[in-house]
Specification:
The protein is mainly α. 67% of the residues lie in helices and 3% in strands. The protein has 14 helices and 4 strands. It has helices at 7-33, 38-41, 56-63, 82-114, 120-131, 139-148, 160-163, 166-177, 181-189, 194-205, 207-222, 225-231, 240-246, 255-289, and strands spanning 66-68, 71-72, 75-76, 79-81. A two-stranded antiparallel sheet has the order 1-4. Strands 2-3 form a two-stranded antiparallel sheet. A hairpin with a 2-residue loop joins strand 2 and strand 3 (75-76). Helix 4 crosses helix 8 and helix 4 packs antiparallel against helix 11 (207-222). The longest helix has 35 residues, at 255-289. The protein is globular.
Length: 291
């Protein structure tokens, strides 16, 4: 016999559907707007669907400036659209931050959860307190530190500050707490060293937490406009959001260009979410099903 659905169930479905529609509409408006002509974009009456699909906004985005597509160890790549270089910079920044943060946070979280050492409680307390510390408070010493390391106006200057994200350590510590100590002891009895125990026993069990942290870190790094604005100045080192902002005139705004850049910048975020969606959902809901 089928379970009878309550009124609350149907109201919840309607509310969730409306919220999903609201968030989806913003993406729809940006994507369709990037293919609209300027009169349709600036029309006082909203044009819900382009009457004529044009590529002029993307052509303007790709042809307005040029820059080397990459620069590795002083070797300059071939010239190409500056927007493509900005996108490469942003993807590299977000992916590098995601990988390094997941590696360091998983190790630190495991050590804080399963190792017993002097000052362990104090270290974890400082990490929790750091989560409440606004980034603006440490911005001046952070800029001076990056300048002292000759990393200012370098893409690494926005990667390294994110690697020590306290939230990542906190999140993976909580997941590491759920690893049975008996499994770790069994691995040691079988002759596994510390690294092998961590890689083969601990990592597979905290994989959902790593997947959730990967998405959080990628999005946080991608959207950290303020840090990018302070740390990056040269046109070749800009991210896609900074680069689009520099293409705006002082007294006018080209909304078609903005929408084309935003649509281009949204593609990697959507791809990363689709790849890690299973782990992200499992990581978020895991705490809710534990008894």
């Amino acid at each position: 016999m089928k379970e009878k659905k309550s009124l609350f169930y149907y109201l919840s479905c309607i509310l969730i559907g409306l919220v999903a529609l609201l968030f989806t509409f913003t993406l729809y408006w940006i994507i369709t707007g990037s293919f609209k002509t300027r009169p349709e974009i600036m029309s006082a009456t909203p044009v819900w669907f382009p009457s004529e699909w044009v590529m002029s906004n993307y052509e303007k985005l790709m042809s307005s400036r040029s820059a080397p597509l990459f620069s590795i160890f002083g070797i300059q790549g071939p010239n190409g659209p500056a927007a493509l270089r900005w996108l490469i910079n942003t993807v590299f920044m977000a992916v590098a931050s995601m990988i390094l943060t997941c590696i360091t946070s998983s190790m630190a979280g495991y050590a804080l959860a399963k190792k017993r050492f002097a000052g362990r409680g104090l270290v974890f307390t400082l990490i929790v307190c750091a989560m409440a510390l606004p980034k603006q408070v440490i911005l001046v010493p952070l800029v001076r530190l990056m300048a002292g390391l000759n990393l200012y106006d370098n893409i690494w200057s926005v990667i390294f500050p994110i690697v020590g994200w306290p939230f990542g350590v906190f999140l993976l510590k909580q997941f590491s707490e759920g690893v049975p100590g008996e499994m770790i002891e069994a691995a040691r009895i079988d002759g596994a060293g510390e690294i092998k125990t961590f890689v083969e026993v601990v990592l597979p069990m905290i994989k959902p937490g790593i997947g959730a942290l990967a998405i959080f870190t990628f999005i946080n790094s991608w959207n950290d406009y303020f840090m990018q604005l302070i740390m990056l100045t040269t046109s070749e080192n800009l991210t896609i959001s900074l680069g689009i902002a520099t293409m705006q005139a002082e007294n006018s705004t080209d909304f078609g260009l903005l929408m084309a850049g935003s649509a281009l910048a949204a593609v990697p975020i959507i791809a990363i979410f689709l790849v890690f969606q299973k782990y992200f959902t499992k990581g978020i809901t895991m705490g809710a099903v534990k008894g």
